[in-house]
Write a structure and sequence with these properties.
alpha/beta, five-stranded mixed β-sheet, four-stranded parallel β-sheet, about 25% helix, about 25% strand
């Protein structure tokens, strides 16, 4: 049975409700030192998680995907980085159907590799799961909060959120600039995207102020 908040707390403000959160929410695989979850975003949401801590970076693919890059969750404070030109091919499975996210920014891409950590879920898939949860079934009156932290390639993350989530992204009305003052009724059916100060600074030229 899905855990829901709406029926009992729909008229409560966000700041008045205690919610379940998920640390390093995208790491459902790995060894005992790196794995933090056992389920994906959608299943965690069904179990009651509403706040998701996501750390995203670009990683080179191997095997059949050699020569491509995926935006993925990671859990590794020792990861290393290099820079690639903007024409680096990305795995279209992490982008929108038309593959637009990879090529609409004239910038170098920061590509990481892990040293002692783990790579997790693909950004595209996690966003798709979040959208699916708030779009139908028991999640249609619920909401999710995706907080991106310790990430790289912020404009690409912003593009992915816009392209994949579409109208499911929460946009505050003019009279409710403070998210904490919104009721759960006002947040229903939406995915709230949260960037750190660094993320806001990196995306502000193209996406406006946070």
């Amino acid at each position: 049975m899905a855990v829901t908040y709406y029926s009992e707390y729909k008229n409560k403000k966000l700041c008045e409700v205690v919610l379940l959160g998920s640390h390093d929410a995208g790491i459902a695989k790995g060894n005992s030192n790196t794995q933090t979850q056992t389920k994906g975003i959608g299943d965690q949401a069904l179990k009651g998680a509403r706040f998701f801590d996501l750390r995203i970076a670009a990683f080179a693919n191997s095997g059949h995907g050699a020569g491509t890059v995926s935006m993925r969750a990671y859990h590794d404070d020792t990861k290393q980085s290099s820079y690639h030109k903007s024409n680096t091919r990305q795995n279209l499975g992490t982008l929108d159907a038309a593959g637009q996210i990879a090529n609409n920014r004239n910038q170098a891409m920061k590509v990481d590799y892990t040293v002692g950590g783990a790579k997790g879920g693909e950004l595209y898939n996690m966003l798709a799961e979040a959208k699916a949860f708030v779009s139908a079934g028991p999640g249609a009156k619920e909401f999710l909060m995706l907080k991106f932290d310790k990430s790289t390639n912020w404009p690409l993350i912003a593009d992915a959120c816009i392209d994949v989530l579409g109208t499911s992204i929460y946009a505050p009305p003019g009279d409710k600039a403070n998210l904490n003052e919104c009721t759960l009724r006002e947040l229903r059916g939406k995915v709230i995207v949260l960037f750190t100060k660094d993320g806001c600074g990196a995306t502000a030229p193209a996406f406006g102020q946070c």
